[in-house]
Amino acid sequence: MTIPKQSIRRNELVVAAAKLFKENSFDRTTVRMLAAATGIKSGSLFHHFKGKEEILVAVIEDGLKKSLKAVQTETQSLTDINQTLFALIYGHLKTLHGPERDAHIVSITEWRSLSDESKQHLITLRDEYEQFWQKIIIEAIDNRLLTGEPTLIRLFILGSLNWSIQWFQPSQGKSIKELAQQFYNMVAK
Amino acid sequence: MTIPKQSIRRNELVVAAAKLFKENSFDRTTVRMLAAATGIKSGSLFHHFKGKEEILVAVIEDGLKKSLKAVQTETQSLTDINQTLFALIYGHLKTLHGPERDAHIVSITEWRSLSDESKQHLITLRDEYEQFWQKIIIEAIDNRLLTGEPTLIRLFILGSLNWSIQWFQPSQGKSIKELAQQFYNMVAK
Amino acid sequence: MTIPKQSIRRNELVVAAAKLFKENSFDRTTVRMLAAATGIKSGSLFHHFKGKEEILVAVIEDGLKKSLKAVQTETQSLTDINQTLFALIYGHLKTLHGPERDAHIVSITEWRSLSDESKQHLITLRDEYEQFWQKIIIEAIDNRLLTGEPTLIRLFILGSLNWSIQWFQPSQGKSIKELAQQFYNMVAK
Amino acid sequence: MTIPKQSIRRNELVVAAAKLFKENSFDRTTVRMLAAATGIKSGSLFHHFKGKEEILVAVIEDGLKKSLKAVQTETQSLTDINQTLFALIYGHLKTLHGPERDAHIVSITEWRSLSDESKQHLITLRDEYEQFWQKIIIEAIDNRLLTGEPTLIRLFILGSLNWSIQWFQPSQGKSIKELAQQFYNMVAK
DNA sequence: CATGAATGAGGTTTCATTCAT
DNA sequence: CATGAATGAAACCTCATTCAT
Question: Is residue D29 one of the residues assigned to a domain?
Answer without folding.
Answer: no
